Automatic annotation (TrEMBL):
<dbReference type="InterPro" id="IPR003593">
    <property type="entry name" value="AAA+_ATPase"/>
</dbReference>
<dbReference type="InterPro" id="IPR003959">
    <property type="entry name" value="ATPase_AAA_core"/>
</dbReference>
<feature type="region of interest" description="Disordered">
    <location>
        <begin position="354"/>
        <end position="373"/>
    </location>
</feature>
<dbReference type="InterPro" id="IPR027417">
    <property type="entry name" value="P-loop_NTPase"/>
</dbReference>
<dbReference type="Pfam" id="PF00004">
    <property type="entry name" value="AAA"/>
</dbReference>
<feature type="domain" description="AAA+ ATPase">
    <location>
        <begin position="418"/>
        <end position="550"/>
    </location>
</feature>
<protein>
    <submittedName>
        <fullName>AAA family ATPase</fullName>
    </submittedName>
</protein>
Amino acid sequence: MSIATVEAPARGTPSALTDPRLLAWRHLFVSGAADVLRRYRAAWADPTLDDAARAVAAVGVVDPHPRVALLPLPTEGEFAELVRVTGIDAAAEAVLAVAWWAAVEPQVAIVCGCVHDDAGRRWPSLGLLAHVFAGVGVTVPLTVGATHPLVRRGLLDVVVDPDAPIRLPTTTVAAIAGQRPAPPAPGAVAPRVAAAATRVAALLDAGVPVLVRCEVPDDRAPVRDAVAAQLGIAPAPGVRPPAVARLLLHLRHELPAVLLEPGDAPPDGTVLALGGADEPGPPGWHLVELAAPPLAVAEQVWRRALRQAGVAVNPDELADLVGRLPLAEPTIAAVVGRARVAAAVDGRTATARDVSAALRSQPRHDPGGLARRLPPTTTLDDLVLPPATLAAVRDVVAHARHSPAAHDRLRLTGRRGRAVIALFHGPSGTGKTAAAEAVAAAIDRDLWTVDLARVVTKWLGETQRNLDTVLRDAAAAGAVLLFDEADGLFGKRGDVTDARDRYANLEIDHLLQRIEVHAGVVVLTSNRPSALDEAFARRIRLAVRFDLPDHGERERIWRRHLPHVDTAAVAREELSGATIRAAALAATVSAIAAGTDVRAEHLHAAVRRELEKSRRPPTARRPR
């Protein structure tokens, strides 16, 4: 990575302009330059020489032997500390000091132009510095390569041309000037965050790089700032080149900390990384785990924030808000605040639905192409199901709402088994997908339907990565995840006869392990539950059987779609709910095309066409 350089003269702080060691180097450079210029003048003023002889005489005006003793350089000040920390020699120190003075003081830049004998070249170069400082016994190199201490320490970019201008990186200018960014002001943080920050600060002081694994993504920045405040160092504004990051840390200018995205590794030079709960620890790094607020604490924070905002919620709504997403304490208050403001704009008081909408906008709500987001349009009241089936669906809703509280009450620790995995199985068209929508609507969450054609690929390892991504994003969004026709993904493992079989079985093993630690609600639908792998079937918490509707249920479904039409005759046909919906739509289209209301002939024609799709003859006798 290239280092940004100073393109225009900068201005130093008053303390930097009076730094004793910098002033000593300024004096040495100006004195040496003045001596060179005097000897130039003496050579050109000799009346016994012609122009050519004067030019030749001026070439050797610098005596390679020291004419002036190197001053005792002061040992106090920011520049002296920089030299001590980096361990650079006098020649490297001279390069830094003069380049810095040329950048911050125009008169020094003018001196450079005079030595160059070109007013347009107001900058130091390695050739110029070697020329000037030879008179004080300092041998400045004519090139600075990648192995030179100035480059290895991140103080200077590579310089291969002795005549090229020396431009100091902005970080070096600030380091020489002693310009330290102000560390974050100590602020109020949750006790769990403060305790983690204290431990991390102690580890960093001991020279150990630290990875903080945060169960709550919103904890990453507060932990970083709390650590920086305890150390008295500002967090780095971005990823620096490794040498620069180490230098600024040693000078106590910046704390090289980074907030990791999923799958990223800490960049070289970083000493503090903050990632998710599943972030792998690099070798040699110390791991610090930061759990989400305990459920009881989160409930108290939610109650207080809702009460202050004047939002009334019932116990079920509160349980859903508390258990939906692990959030940091300040984030909870911010979510409720956004809900209150949004409702106030509409001239009304915020409700639990407003808070839920604000909560859905808090995390990243993007399936990323691996799933489709379906806003739930079906409610539990819209479902036409046998009482036992409807009760089982309501059990799924209860588990989605209260499972976190049940784990807390039973003191069940760990991440395994927290996912609410429900299997909806039965013939096609019996309402399995509609029931999944109703579950999502009951707990006021989005429904993501996984696109198996995108998740499952032929490339080795790609299916596992895709599943990791969709599960991670769904957990971060608090969405209900729907795997339609799940036996295509979670089918039984077969005998291994070749490499493809082995990799297919490995993929299923990975899916089983990954979904077991998922924190959220997963609904699977299948027409063939017996095709599911037995190991996965054991991980299913709830299974709901959906059967074809009986005569009374079919009449209710027909009346729901066509409330003002006599559907008693067509209700005798043994159709699924999805087929009835399709027939009602087809009959309505035919009626609109004919310019009439829906009539019996439209209904029977639509039913006959639906039966022909499945190659079934009508079973109910049509009345004469």
